[in-house]
Amino acid sequence: KTGFVGIVGRPNVGKSTLLNAILGEKIAITTDKPQTTRNAIRGIYTHYADDNINEDTQMVFIDTPGIHKPRTKLGKYMTDSAVNTFKEVEAVIFIVDDRLSAGPGDKYIVDMLNEVTTPKILVINKIDKMEPDVFEKIYNEYDQLEIFENIFGVSAKEGINVHDVIKCALGFM
Ligand code: GDP
Ligand code: MG
């Protein structure tokens, strides 16, 4: 199996960290400062058939740079290219973190995701530092939008449930 997966989310939610966790190498740049990843950095996940995933697999990941309402021509260009990326991939992983309730940045991304029919997976990241009631609130908030095929609580930093996300994305290929 071969396919493309887009990773999208507000700056600092853990896109690069998740990509690193999946690929098992330091390819994308992680930082506390928002928007260090200016370009879509592609990483390739290669897996040989085993008891867990019984098919040879190659997934190409695209780390979409921070998307926000464009105020400049460059911003508009980046947003357009992100929507095109969503159309071209087999699945999109949308990442949010422990910030309670979606901000305008999240809503903007959701609107963009709504424009495409590509299967969407929601990752609620940083569960290692999240209270259960916070997780539940975020989960319900996104679940009621009814645009996500699956929702996972994940810690990209500690590798919790990362494998489930990979398997889920594989299901769309
Ligand atoms: P990006 O801007 O979306 O690519 O976010 P990064 O991957 O650069 O991560 C931003 C910050 O969040 C970094 O300080 C990461 O160490 C931290 N971070 C990412 N994932 C997790 C996680 O699962 N748990 C915790 N506690 N911190 C995380
Ligand atoms: Mg990044």
Describe the SSE topology:
Layout lengths: L1 E7 L6 H9 L17 E7 L9 E7 L9 H16 L2 E6 L7 H11 L5 E6 L6 H12 L6 E5 L7 H9 L3
Parallel strand pairs: 1-3, 1-4, 4-5, 5-6
Antiparallel strand pairs: 2-3
The structure holds guanosine-5'-diphosphate and magnesium ion.
The site of magnesium ion has 5 residues, from helix 1.
Protein architecture, described:
With 173 residues, the chain is an alpha/beta fold. The protein has one domain (2-170): Rossmann fold (3-Layer(aba) Sandwich). Helices cover 33% and strands 22% of the residues. It is built from five helices and six strands. A six-stranded mixed beta sheet has the order 2-3-1-4-5-6, sandwiched between helices. It is globular. The chain binds guanosine-5'-diphosphate (GDP) and magnesium ion (MG). The site of guanosine-5'-diphosphate has 19 residues, from helix 1.
